[in-house]
Structure formats: C-alpha cells, structure tokens
Amino acid sequence: MFSPTEENYLKALFTLSNEDGEVTVNELSKKLEIKMPTVNSMMKKLADKKLVHYETYKPLRLTEKGKKEAALILRKHRLTEMYLVEKMGFGWEEVHNIAEQIEHLKSPEFFKKMDELLGYPKVDPHGSPIPDGSGKIKWVQYRKLSECLEGETVTLAAVTNSSDDFLKFLNSHELQLGTKLQIESIESYDGTMMVKYNNKTKALSKIASEKLLVKER
Amino acid sequence: MFSPTEENYLKALFTLSNEDGEVTVNELSKKLEIKMPTVNSMMKKLADKKLVHYETYKPLRLTEKGKKEAALILRKHRLTEMYLVEKMGFGWEEVHNIAEQIEHLKSPEFFKKMDELLGYPKVDPHGSPIPDGSGKIKWVQYRKLSECLEGETVTLAAVTNSSDDFLKFLNSHELQLGTKLQIESIESYDGTMMVKYNNKTKALSKIASEKLLVKER
DNA sequence: GTACAATGTTAGACGAGACTAACAAAATAA
DNA sequence: TTATTTTGTTAGTCTCGTCTAACATTGTAC
Q1: Contacts of B107 in chain A (CB under 8 A)
Q2: I need a surface site. Which of A69, A169, A171, B102 has the fewest CB within 10 A?
Q3: pLDDT 10s digits, B135-175
Q4: Cα-Cα-Cα-Cα dihedral of A161, A167, A169, A170, to 10°?
Q5: d(CA B175, CA B208)
Q6: How far, in Å, is the CA of B57 from the C1' of nucleotide C11?
Q7: What DSSP state is assigned to residue B123?
Q8: Cross-chain Cβ contact A90/B113 below 8 Å
C-alpha cells in the first residue's frame, strides 16, 4: 500500500502533532534528518494521496485517513518492540532500531501472529499505548512521578522518553513497568525523591521522575 | 553493506548455480522476474564490487566473495523460516514470503538471537542446510525416497521442492521432517509406494517420492 | 516599519533500479 | 552454410527519494 519511506513520514507526522494536530515542515525535516525541500515534495505527494492537508506556508495536518494509517504503523512498531522484549529476550534499549525495520514488512499474518502470541496487549514495553487493528488508540491518563506526593504508593506504567541512555538508566536501576514505587520523601530544593521499591530505597532526580509515568497502586 | 536488491541478485545467483557455478543472464532474469537489460546492468555493478565474474556473452559466476555473501543471506533466510515455524507456529507454506523480507534486515543481533533461541540449527524446516556464520555450508548427502527399497525404514530429512502446493500436500498427509517411514511395498509399474508412518499406511506417487529426501533410520 | 533571520517553496540534478527499443552475438534448424 | 530463433548488450527513458542553489514568505528585533 505505502512505501517504507511514506510510512516513516506518516509516523513522524503522527508523533510530532501538537494538540491541534499541527506539524511544521521544519520539525519534520529535523526529526527525519531529511532536508526541507525533500520533505516539502513528499508532503505534496501525501496530499495527493489524501493523507495530509497541505497548503503552502501553513502547518501540516494529517487527514483522518492519514491518522489511521500512521496509527497502524505505530501499532506494528509497538507490537514488534513488545515481541522482541517479551518473547525474544532483548533489552528495552535494543529493540527500537529492529522494530523500525520490521514495522515496514508487508505481512498482515506476521503482525497478527505476534499480537496473538503476546495476548493482544494494549501497552508496549515503553508503556506507550498500542493502537488497535482499526487504528484507534486508547489513551490512558497517567501522572508524572514528579507530581506525586510523599507517602503515595504508585505503579510504574510508562516512560515519556525512550532514548537509549534513559532506557539503560532504567535497567541499571531495576526499574521496570509494573514496579511498585513507594515515595518516602521529597527534597523540596531540587525535587529529588527517595523512593522504595524491590525492598531498596533509591534517590531519583527530578529529571528522571518527570519522565516516569505512573498509575495508582 | 548491500541493498536488498543486490542481496536478491546474489541469492538467486547462488541458488541457480550449476555444478560449474555458472548461471546465464536469462535464467536469472526469469527467476527474479526482472527484464534482461536490468539484470545485465546489475551484473556489471556486482562485477565492479568483485561479487561476480562478468564477461560479455559468457555465463555468470559468483566470486568467492560473492558466494560467501550469498550464503550469509541464505543463512538469514533459513534461520528466519525456522524461527517462524518453530517459535511462532507458522506452517511451512506460509513462511517463505515473510522470510524473504526479514532476511534483508540490518541487525546482526536479531539473527544472532534467532540462532540462539533455535539452538544453532544446521538444517531449516524444508530440510535444507543452513550456512554457518562464516558462510560455509555443510552438505549432507540424502537419498530420494523413490530410490529406496521395499522393507527399508528411513527418516524424512528434506524436500527438494518448496512450492506452496507441495508443502500443502505434505501438511495434508501429516508428513514432517523427522517422520519415520517404513516402505511396505512398491508398485513396479508406476513406482507408487505404500509407506507406513504415524501408524497408518498411505500411498505415495513417484512424483511425490522423488521430491522427498531421506536419511537412514 | 524597515531590516534581518528563520522557515517554506521552486527548480533542477542525481543515483538506484526498473523499463522499452534497437542492435549484436551465439545457438539451432533447415 | 545460411536462415532463424534465442540470448545478450547498448542506449535512452522513467520514477522514487534524495540533494543543492536560489528565491519567497513569514516572523522578530530594533
């Protein structure tokens, strides 16, 4: 249906969209590391295919069709990541690049099988929601750990950032999705939290706690 | 290192090679379903890269370097097929197309992991040998079932042909690699064999028994 | 409110990998 | 051995996705 290249543009448009669903050519260009004129001409092509709304000098917006296609690509990406972690034993920080390639495979059966083997998951190993087969996303409302109060006990549910370094940081601190966190104290000066989990108490900087999304209990 | 396109040419050259390692432009063109002039220009390109020996109006031959690269691609293909069958529960007839795509992924870790999870197999689900990590192939000598004699008991080890229809035929007859076959009788007129396996006796035509490779016991 | 900076657009080029049309060589048949 | 068919090659074109250079518009600062 779409080329890997087109799929990458759609995915980037989707993830870069602000509240109004707008993305600038410049942002897209930086994200994809592709020069602006190239991005520009691709946007015209995607506009011809009714995937984006394009008007010269205006921000870009995905059409409904574009959003759906993008969500389906994201779905494949996240299912793949999850499969690699859960079924093949890769670490969080290793899976992104592999998933970026596998997401473009033309084989519905392959993704269906992964979904099945994973038990139809709703959230990926990074805690991000996985769009369903029709491209719908169930957005769950999580709080930042940094916004929680002393004495609360919460469960690590997602991370906002999936940089290699951050994922390695999580691994090295034995922080995993589902880990129960008990907030023992908060340093009011810099927001550093003393958090107890796995029967140990550790310090988490504000920089880290802002990237951790939690749910109650 | 090489583009998916180049890899496909290398793989085709490898599998089409006759005893002398020769392949004609025409054969390659038919196999890949790509017109001869395109194949021709790609051969010049691969010759520049020292992957094939090319002289005008002469048959093509892979260089040692070309053979090694081709074997490594074949290795990825077969490891993938095996993984899909053994670990994901796909049927033999479903895996070829998926493996054709996955074999081109740029991720040594991914193939290493599959190899590991599969226990470093030497033969793929079709019974074909899997080249090792350095591109070497251990050729095992199998006999055709059609050449066996009445009373022999042999083990199905490989198939010579992986067409969809043939793989479905095997499935529908509960024939799998490793199945023990006891040859009860052979019809001398047309070579049809009565073979006992899985506690049932079935008739196998000569057309089928010529495609089945077996080993002793 | 003009000047400068940042962002967006147009035009033209290029390499990869496909094609067709036309021609050349080799193999085969008469 | 000549004619015909098959196979191989050359030349030129096309699309895709990238680029650079040049120009246009919008936003920002003074």
Answers
A1: 97-98, 101
A2: A171
A3: 888 777 778 888 888 998 999 887 766 566 777 888 889 88
A4: 90
A5: 11
A6: 43
A7: B
A8: yes
* Interface contact A102-B106, CB threshold 8 A: no
- B25-32 vs B4-16: helix axis angle to the nearest 10? 120
- Written as six digits, the tokens of A39 are 């991005």
pLDDT in tens, A103-124: 999 999 999 999 999 888 877 7
Residues 6+ away with beta carbon under 8 Å from B72: B131, B133, B135
3-state SS string for chain A: CCCHHHHHHHHHHHHHCCCCCEECHHHHHHHHCCCHHHHHHHHHHHHHCCCEECCCCCCEEECHHHHHHHHHHHHHHHHHHHHHHHCCCCCHHHHHHHHHHHCCCCCHHHHHHHHHHCCCCCECCCCCECCCCCCCCCCCCCEEHHHCCCCCEEEEEEECCCCHHHHHHHHHCCCCCCCEEEEEEECCCCCCEEEEECCEEEEECHHHHCCEEEEEC
Q: Which residue has the higher pLDDT, B2 or A162?
A: B2
Determine the Cα–Cα distance for residues A13 and B24; give it in Å rounded to an integer: 46
Q: List chain A residues with pLDDT less than 70.
A: 125-127, 160-164, 217
- Nearest CA to B128 out of B195, B32, B211 is that of B211
Q: How far apart are CA B191 and CA A121, in angstroms?
A: 53
Q: Please choose, from the candidates A72, A34, A80, A105, the residue with its C-alpha nearest in 3D space to the C-alpha of residue B4.
A: A105
Partnered with residue B62 across adjacent β-strands are B52
A to B CB pairs, distance under 8 Å:
36
Exposed e or buried b per residue across A177-200, where buried means at least 16 C-beta atoms within 10 angstroms of its C-beta: bebebebeebeeeeebbebebeee
Choose among B89, B106, B114: nearest Cβ to A101: B106
